[in-house]
Amino acid sequence: MIREARESLGMSRDVLAKVIGIKESILRRIEDGQLIPDIELARKLEKALGISLLRESEDVGTETQRPVSKSLTLGDVVTLREKSKGK
After folding, report:
1. How far apart are CA 70 and CA 21, in angstroms?
2. Predicted TM-score (pTM) of this structure
3. Hey, CA dihedral for 63, 66, 67, 70, is it positive or negative?
């Protein structure tokens, strides 16, 4: 989407990179899908290209849930060791 918008404006990659204040290599990685821009950079891209990249979250104001992980964490290991010492 970013590449198409840039090209439709007739803008080269190096010019866009200078306009938004990043290295051309970073912009190339974003356009190639190797790097996802942070919110601040996405806003700069939106403004420079006249496109919409960000959308408002539907969960604004609600509690976020932690992803479920089936692997052990360091905290789990520490807890297990403490329990085994108590026996």
Report:
1. 41
2. 0.62
3. negative
